[in-house]
Write a sequence for this structure.
């Protein structure tokens, strides 16, 4: 009860605004064909869940983000490790190239990637991986560089091998920073995913908005927009939760952006919860592949007009 | 002699990899290793840019794009800085009420809103500027409120007890001590504004750099695609550099502890 009260108190303004929006549409202060009331939007989401196979689109979008995230973090950590260890001398020389590459606006790259990889799934995953690679790489590189040299020397003098120094000294110490990079990468990737899906996709949340816009279905524009907003919000929340749970020993400083400014109690994640999260990630990947396969089949079905395809399920 | 040697070494470290990258790229294109249908060689890109520079189209598209980005950014600054000051400083209870809403709004994916903006504002300039405004207001707002929180209360008390007016307090104490955060926020906002400009123009415009690229893609004009990308990279770099320079000149004496990178 107290939790509910606290929630209501903290979000009083959101609730008040929603009520005002509902009222203004119902009382015809605003044109409800342009600004449908929130109740209608919520109803549309339910309707879409039943008729449009929303689950498929959600899974496809999540799969794209997750797949590119896994690829980008693997590559980012690996190359940061190489450039801070084995190829130490090469980094100052390569830095300008990296900085310029990271600066390239990913939306400009999108047409280029389409030219290279074709309009299919690979181009999207390549763009998303490119986007999330840079934060992961730069964060991991700085973290690996700034590991306490005393700890490394101590480990070495006790006869630890290079690999065990990396896995037992360097990595644990730099993991919070690496995770921060991953988090920024995910946020960027989700951001760009929607744009990528809007400019040409088989399925996904961005595609729903785009298609609803093309068909001038106002309720669905709002409904799909609401879904995108909510999934971004919960993605953020989830990463925040993971951050706090995994790195509960870390001192909290000023949050890096507004989204993380909400304070939350810090407690370590149990092994059970962690394995559950791992399993959930695996499940999303598996389901995503399957749903993507289904979407491809639907795309290649000549009897369905592309724009109407998702509405006729 | 050593000066020249030093300069060359530094130049090699600064942009050696970039030069080598461009050379390899050119080599790959000249030898036919990279298919001409997919990859434009640097020479071709420069030639295309040269043509666009002289027929005025580069100028036209750049001006329209930059003015859109600048309008959005300026509006965001005009609204964001005072609002951030109010939220962070004067009205603590106001912040408690409206803060959650703002933090929630800051997480909105702008593409979800794009269709809504189109619906409400039409397909003219206004919806593009509104979108740029929307994404670039959050960094400035957040950093302004952080900045005002970082003001040392002792300094404010001293100034008050010495009888300074409200305006002097703002001008002499509050703004200088929060300037580092403000500039970090402005730099982030300007970057975001230019960043968002490209998709906004890609999705519905008939002029501008974003349109140049999307049009090149649709019509399969590969040299133009690369040339447009290069121009956008250069502008992005210049904007970032300009703000870093301003930050260094104006608030270099004060480093924010948690400046956003």
């Amino acid at each position: 009860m107290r939790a509910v009260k606290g929630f209501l108190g903290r979000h009083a303004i959101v609730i008040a605004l929603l009520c005002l929006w509902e009222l203004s549409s119902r009382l015809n202060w605003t044109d409800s064909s342009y600004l449908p009331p929130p109740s209608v939007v919520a109803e549309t989401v339910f309707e879409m869940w039943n008729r449009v196979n929303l689950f498929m689109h959600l899974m496809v979008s999540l799969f794209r983000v997750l797949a590119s995230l896994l690829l980008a973090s693997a590559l980012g950590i690996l190359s940061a490790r190489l450039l801070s260890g084995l190829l130490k001398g090469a980094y100052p020389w390569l830095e300008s190239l990296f900085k310029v590459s990271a600066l390239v606006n990913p939306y400009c790259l999108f047409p280029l990637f389409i030219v290279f990889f074709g309009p299919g799934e690979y181009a999207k995953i390549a763009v998303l991986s490119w986007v999330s690679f840079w934060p992961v790489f730069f964060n991991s590189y700085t973290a690996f560089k700034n590991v306490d040299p005393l700890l490394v020397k101590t480990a070495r003098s006790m006869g630890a091998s290079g690999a065990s120094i990396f896995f037992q000294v360097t990595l644990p110490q730099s993991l919070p920073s690496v995770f921060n990079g991953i988090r920024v990468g995910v946020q960027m990737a989700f951001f760009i995913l929607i744009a990528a899906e809007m400019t040409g996709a088989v399925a996904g949340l961005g595609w729903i908005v785009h298609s609803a816009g093309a068909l001038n279905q106002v309720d669905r524009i709002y409904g799909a927009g609401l879904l995108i907003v909510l999934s971004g919000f919960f993605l953020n929340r989830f990463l925040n939760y993971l951050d706090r749970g995994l790195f509960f020993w870390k001192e909290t400083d000023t949050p890096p952006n507004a989204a993380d400014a909400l304070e939350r109690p810090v407690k370590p994640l149990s092994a059970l919860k962690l394995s559950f999260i791992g399993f959930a990630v695996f499940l999303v990947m598996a389901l995503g592949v399957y749903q993507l396969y289904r979407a491809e089949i639907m795309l290649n079905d000549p009897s369905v007009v592309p724009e109407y395809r998702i509405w006729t399920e | 002699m050593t000066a020249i040697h030093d300069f060359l070494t530094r130049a090699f470290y600064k942009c050696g990899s970039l030069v080598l990258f461009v050379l390899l790229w050119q080599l790959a294109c000249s030898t036919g290793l990279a298919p001409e249908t997919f990859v434009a060689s640097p020479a071709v890109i420069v030639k295309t840019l040269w043509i666009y520079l002289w027929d005025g189209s580069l100028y036209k598209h750049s001006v329209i794009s930059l003015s859109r980005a600048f309008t959005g950014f300026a509006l965001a600054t005009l609204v964001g800085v005072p609002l951030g000051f109010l939220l962070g400083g004067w009205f603590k209870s106001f912040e408690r009420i409206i803060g959650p809403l703002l933090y929630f709004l800051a997480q909105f994916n702008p593409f979800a809103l794009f269709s809504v903006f189109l619906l409400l504002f039409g397909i003219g300039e206004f919806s593009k500027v509104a979108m740029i405004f929307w994404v670039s207001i959050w960094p400035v707002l957040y950093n302004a409120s952080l900045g005002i929180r970082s003001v040392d209360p002792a300094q404010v008390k001293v100034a008050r007890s010495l009888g300074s007016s409200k305006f002097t307090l703002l001008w002499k104490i509050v703004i200088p001590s929060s300037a580092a955060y403000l500039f970090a926020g402005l730099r982030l906002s300007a970057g975001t504004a230019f960043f968002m400009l490209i998709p906004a123009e890609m999705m519905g415009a008939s002029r501008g750099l974003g349109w140049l690229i999307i049009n090149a893609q649709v019509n399969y004009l590969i040299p133009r695609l690369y040339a447009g990308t290069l121009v956008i990279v250069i502008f992005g770099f210049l904007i970032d550099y300009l703000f870093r320079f301003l930050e260094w000149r104006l608030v270099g004496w004060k480093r924010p502890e948690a400046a956003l990178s």
Remarks:
- Chain A touches chain B through 56 residues (CB under 8 Å).
- Chain A has a mean pLDDT of 80.
- DSSP finds 13 helices and no strands in chain A.
